[in-house]
Amino acid sequence: MILVVAPEDDLHACVVRDRLVARGAECTIWDSARFPWRDRLSWSPGDGAAVRLGQTEIALSDVSRIWWRRSRQPAVNPVVEDAQVRRFCAGEARELFRGVVLAGLPVTNDPSAEQRADSKVLQLAVAARVGLPVPPTVVSNDCDRLRAFLEEHPRSVIKTLRCDYVTSIPTRIVGQEDLSDPTAVSLAPMIVQELVTCEADVRVCIVGERVFAAAMRRPDRNENVDWRLSASGWEQLTLPDTVSRRLRQVLDTLGLETGSFDLRLTSDRRYVFLELNPSGQFLFLEVDADLPVSEAMAAHLDAAVIEPA
Length: 309
Known about the structure:
This protein is an alpha+beta fold. The longest helix is centred in the first third of the chain and has 20 residues.
């Protein structure tokens, strides 16, 4: 059995599950937000772990592969009103959940590696190290440092350091007026990058040994700097071997099997690295560019299955 850790309404998880079932594999989606309120999880050194989903119990010894698609924080029973008790219950649930997953089960992607890879600072450092161009960047809550960067790179964008998939803050052009209050700026660090004027936004999904790339052309060059605000018109793209190899080096360095990369293709044919999403979206590439990413993911999970002893 293949267990997919994802919200129950995650369309990507549902599509891959259906493709696995079509291949003859058994697959279950488990929403980690159901634990510990609705679901039960038990573990012992000799017997291993079992999860009870409603009336269905699954022995994790029968699980041959976990796809760590997108986990959510534990949900504590609302009868617990005290905030400190709720934090305690959630923390204990989180430790058991992660402990069971990390206790020897094959995982794609390993949650510890994915958590580490979510660092935008680490991603940029690794990308630069393997030879990918990266934009001039500063990450800071120092207003003077940020103002100095904008003076040197007046056409820049502002980004958040993390995405919790609940509150999505788009990338946008930043100006000196955003730095008018040093105290407000000091409250939280931000990423400021020089805007990469480009011919196209590029999305690259790597699944095991397979690389899928698509481009969305940019006749406006600078407007709508966050392609998520107008994500349509993607076309298949063949990446240079050097770029594919370096992107795979990034995944290998971060300990990931899969990942979705955002790049920008400049007029002088440079592929500039922006960021990596370990559990990024890919179905829009199937709709627009006819790239079979979900089938590749199903094949990757199915091929990675090791029959339990």
